[in-house]
Amino acid sequence: MAEEVVQANSGNALLQSFSPFSNKLNWLLLAVPLALWAKFFAHDPTLAFATSMVAIMPLAFLMGKATEEIALRYSESIGGLLNATFGNAVEIIIATLAIITAYRSPEVADTMITVVKASLIGSILGNLLLVLGLALLWGGINHSEQKFSTDANSSNGSLLMLAVMALIIPFALGMAGGTSTAVLELSRYAAIVLLLIYCLALIFQLKTHTYLYEPAHEQEAHDNPTMTIKDAWTLLILATIFVGIMAEILVHSIHDAASSWGLPELFIGVILLPFFGNAAEHFSAVLVAGKDKMDLALGIAIGSSVQIAVFVAPLMVIFAWVMGVDLSMDFGILETVATFISILIANMILSDGKSNWLEGAMLIACYVVLGIAFFEVG
Questions:
Q1: Which is it for strands 354-355 and 146-147: parallel, antiparallel or unpaired?
Q2: Cα 106 from Cα 102, distance rounded (Å)
Q3: Cβ of 377: how many Cβ atoms within 10 Å?
Q4: Backbone phi, then psi, for 326, in 5-degree steps?
Q5: What is the mean pLDDT of the chain?
Q6: How far apart are CA 118 and CA 271, in angstroms?
Q7: Which residues neighbour 325 within 8 Å (Cβ) at sequence distance 6 or greater?
Q8: What is the signed CA dihedral for 166, 172, 176, 182, rounded to 10 degrees?
Q9: Nearest to residue 350, comparing CAs of 342, 359, 338, 358?
Q10: pLDDT digits over 163-176, tens only?
Q11: CA distance from start to end of the chain
């Protein structure tokens, strides 16, 4: 019956997804034409950067909405995987365009490499500390104590520790006197290993040990799709295309914006870009945590960090290798230490299979401290 109602409303649900009257966040879609005007007519890179960054937020939300509609037709573990995957599409697009720009314009290669590394590290930190922290905080406010599967989070925690090892070893090699060529080669081989491990982890999660990723307890209510699968995929494709356009404008105007605003490029890459780009994860993870669906909330927040660390980051290293751009896994001492500490704190908080609002507040506090550190480093 529910599916028949969805079919009857086909098309209307797709149009409603863009309506600012159905979601106030859609008012920010006005930033899309403003960004295009600033880039191609006003030739104002600072305005183009600001408006394109703002435009990515509602577009990322629409991507998250479409993905959630698609995920509702699958199991909760696959749903979390889909949300995490398409939630990271913004980071993939921005990093890819930055690498292509570094290849085409060697004079800005250093800036583009900084953007890639900063956005990847920022996404890991943002998901582990800010998104997860907000989810635990909001869920804890609505429910005094929430429980979730420790088996799935233990597996994800191990993957994150493996990923941070792949960051520490190239950095340690450089500090021990290794040449930049040696660090680069080590990074590329480590990236291949991480991609292989990620493929094995997918088999583990979706094939051989699916029972570990089932919810810790049955939920009383289940959400139903509100649009057809065709409309959901149409929305996802349209939002992705516009994200790509906005990301293109963003990448090419970041240097001018940093100079104009007096902000370090590292701060922009680690804090600002992931904050706006992770809007879909912010909303989805916090929303489902408030409904006491902690396994799904953690699947989105922790799953996004795992995918960035074990899939997206090594994929970008390999892509840069193919393009002839020297992108290594040596992300710098502050970035490496921040990632290691964040993963350690998140693993400790989630180790008992229970959460409360105070633990969420602690994660957010860690994110604020790191944000100040990245601002001061410039």
A1: antiparallel
A2: 5
A3: 13
A4: -85, 90
A5: 84
A6: 8
A7: 99, 102, 103, 109, 113
A8: 30
A9: 359
A10: 888 889 998 898 88
A11: 58
pLDDT of 219 above 50: no
pTM assigned to the model = 0.84
CATH of 2-376, picked from 1.10.357.10, 1.20.1420.30, 2.60.120.10, 3.20.20.70, is 1.20.1420.30
Residue pair 71/78 in contact by the 8 Å Cβ criterion:
yes
Sign of CA dihedral 153, 159, 164, 169: positive
Position of tokens 């570094």?
A: 102
C-alpha Rg value of the chain to the nearest Å: 20
- How far, in Å, CA of 90 to CA of 199, rounded? 21
CB 271 within 8 A of CB 371: yes
Listed residue (122, 123, 101) closest to 111, CA to CA: 101
Can you tell me the distance from the alpha carbon of 315 to that of 195, in angstroms, rounded to the nearest whole number? 7
CB 301 within 8 A of CB 360: no
Length of the chain: 378
DSSP run (H or E) holding 146? strand 146-147
Name the percent of the chain in helix, strand, coil, to the closest 5: 80, 0, 15
What is the number of other CB atoms lying within 10 angstroms of the CB of residue 322?
9
**Residue 376: both structure tokens together:** 């001061």
Q: Please, are residues 224 and 72 in contact by the beta-carbon 8 Å criterion?
A: yes
Average pLDDT over residues 310-322: 94
Pull the structure tokens for residue 290.
């408030």
Q: Where do the DSSP E strands lie in the chain?
A: 146-147, 354-355
